[in-house]
Amino acid sequence: MRNTFSEALYRAASSNPDVYIVVADISPAGSMAKFSQQYPARFINVGVAEQSMIGICAGLALKGCQPFAYTIATFSLYRPFEMVRDDLCYQNLPVTVVGMGAGVIYSTLGGTHHTQEDIAIAGALPNMQIIAPCDPAECTEATNYCAKQKKGPIYLRIGKAGEPNYTDKAVDPWVFGKLRYIKRGSDVCILSYGIIMQKAMQLAERFEAAGKSVSVISCHTMKPLDVDGIAEALARHRHVVVIEEHAPQGGLAPRTKQIAWDTRATCRLDTFTLQDAFIHNYGSHDDLLSAHGIDLPAMSARVGLA
Amino acid sequence: MNKMIRRNTFDVQAAKERCLRYRRRILDISQQVGALHIGSAYSCTEIVDCMYHALMRRNLDGSSPDTFLMSKGHGCMIQYVILEEAGVLSRRDLDDYCKPNGRLGCHPDYGNPGIEASTGSLGHGLSMAVGMALAERGRETDGIIYVVLSDGEVQEGSTWEAVMMASSLGCSNIVAAVDNNDFQSLGRTSVTHPSFYPLAEKFAAFGWETAEADGHDSAAIFGAISARSGKRPFMLCAKTIKGKGVSYMENVPIWHYRSPSKQEYQQAVIELEQAVQ
Q1: Is residue B1 assigned to a domain?
Q2: Residue from the list A52, A57, A82 with its beta carbon closest to the beta carbon of B161
Q3: Mean pLDDT of chain B
Q4: Contact A58 B128 (CB under 8 A)
Q5: Which CATH number goes with the domain that contains B162?
Q6: In this complex, which of B111, B118, B127 lies closest to A56 when CB atoms are compared?
Q7: B267–chain A Cβ distance below 8 A for any pair
Q8: Number of A–B residue contacts, CB under 8 Å
Q9: Structural domain span for residue B244
Q10: Res. B217: pLDDT tops 90
Q11: What is the number of structural domains in chain B?
């Protein structure tokens, strides 16, 4: 996903001389190297100085530029949090803060490199928009959107490398602020966002094997949330499942429950989130998700498929 | 045509008169509200006046290709009264300062006329100045970014990130000044942070061109900044007095924020006017 982000950004920079990227000492994967070679004045590496990364982006935007701040998610959002809040959100500047490798992707690097609370934290900030593409194809769409929009700051939560595409045959196009049906069914609906969509697709297959008609939705825009779209999904399906790689607070699961209450939804609603805990497990990404209770056997059992 | 006018001469007497007017206006406004950062505004009055009136270039329509950024946002009263005199802010804006229907608060807000960035939390301004400087360079325009920092603010790690980046990126179009009034809430910075001084050599070590001057001597400020080479980012370490111009306010921390009483106000008026005569 980071490679498709880099390629989309490189293309945006090729057609718009106001596109800048300010990185904090992160290896130039994929087209990022091309960007830095071809547009060196617009590729700024601050080193391990994330507060200045955000402040410099704010200054560029105050002069009409379209900057991206780019590093590992914990360091792009948490470390310079007050700069994100004051410089970007308070001034409402069109800066994209890219959180790369969000969630617990960096499984062996420990809790310092995990981003379990970013949607809650970014979502609490006035003016902040949040996009979390589920696959490289959505990442390209999201990056193109970020490179053009002038509405305000965006937190773009992306994965790392090697994710497959799930949306090649999606029912809906990618539209900012709208739920996107990847497949549309009538019995069960699985809502998810980000690269944990892989688990959503696997669970959908299990439901289908059990004879259910399944919808899978990419909730790529986490703020503003498509409340009407979620309400409709809750109304149209007998069973709704939310899967997210995020803490139980402030993410899609509690928002969906809130909307279900507000709209008096009558469907069954199961939610799967990371735990409210720092888990010391140094295996693969999947191992860490399992430790948090997100794996196919555990989810299947809880939704009645075991 | 927006023909550029560069002001190379500096009239010391005119500067003195302006600074008196600004201090008087701030004093008057202090009588409308319970608190304003009067001591902080008085310590950087001559610095900000010099930047606006002597250093920043003006187009005939009053706009400037240069940018002023008040990184020590709590000192913004001096910026407000300068912008009021220039007609950028209205008298009503100032009369409504910190009132429910007003648009000016204790810290400058981006979006208000003449305010180029929101500040208030310390340690943000210099990084934004670096971004602005890069944008000017990217567009091949020659705008200079003028920044005023407080000495307390220079304790922020984020300020040093920006100091490092400004010189590393060759931002020679940044002209900054530290309003070194030696005071913050818990006392004199030279006592609480002695290893911080002398200040200028810290910036010089990061590749900045530096100068020192009496921050209440307008001619000295103008002379020091005008003499810069323009090859590196520039930092003026200006020695100032918090509450400068009013004896009972000078170097007394309570005047960081307090408004004077009626009696104190009258005494301040007399002292300010006597000082200029």
Answers
A1: no
A2: A52
A3: 94
A4: yes
A5: 3.40.50.970
A6: B127
A7: no
A8: 100
A9: 15-276
A10: yes
A11: 1
Contact across the interface for B127 and A60, Cβ inside 8 Å: no
> Could you tell me which of A63, A54, A190, A56 has the C-alpha nearest to residue A122?
A54
Name the residue among A17, A54, A59 with its Cβ closest to that of B132. A59
3-class state of residue B21 by DSSP:
helix
Q: Please indicate whether, in this complex, the C-beta atoms of A59 and B135 are within 8 angstroms of each other.
A: yes
- All residues of chain B having their beta carbon less than 8 Å from the beta carbon of residue A44 are 134, 169
Find which of B109, B124, B146 to mutate to test the A interface (most A CBs within 10 Å of its CB): B124
Choose the closest CB to A87 out of B116, B124, B135. Answer: B124
Q: Which residues of A165-190 are buried (b: 16+ CB within 10 A; e: fewer)?
A: ebbeebeeebebebbbbbbebebbbb
Neighbour count for residue A202 (Cβ, 10 Å): 15
Question: What's the whole-number mean pLDDT along residues A25-32?
Answer: 83
- Which member of A55, A57, A65 has the closest CB to residue B162? A55
B9 located within any domain: no
**Residue type present at position A154:** I
| Shortest CA distance from B145: residue in chain A | A59
Domain assignment present for B249 = yes
Q: Does residue B12 register a pLDDT over 80? A: yes
Which residue does chain A place closest to B141, by CA atoms?
Answer: A63
| Nearest alpha-carbon partner for A251 in A164, A136, A132 | A132
B167, closest residue in chain A (CA to CA): A46
pLDDT one-digit tens code per residue, B172-198: 999 999 999 999 888 899 999 999 999
Instruction: List Cβ neighbours of B48 (8 Å cut-off, separation of 6 or more).
Output: B68, B70, B75, B78, B79, B82, B148
Partner A contacted by B153 (CB < 8 A)? no
CB contact under 8 Å between B116 and A62, yes or no, is yes
Q: How confident is the model at residue A242 (pLDDT cuts 50, 70, 90)?
A: very high
pLDDT band at B8 (very low <50, low <70, confident <90, very high): low
> In which residue are the tokens 């490798």 written?
A101
In a domain, B78, yes or no: yes
Question: How far is residue B121's CA from residue B107's CA, in Å, rounded to a whole number?
Answer: 9
Complex confidence, ipTM? 0.96
- Which residue in chain B has the smallest CA separation from A60? B131
Distance from CA of A175 to the nearest CA of B (A): 30
Q: Name beta bridge partners: A22.
A: A44, A69
Which domains does chain A possess?
2-157 (3.40.50.970), 180-302 (3.40.50.920)
**Spatial distance between the Cα atoms of A157 and A134, rounded to a whole number of angstroms:** 10
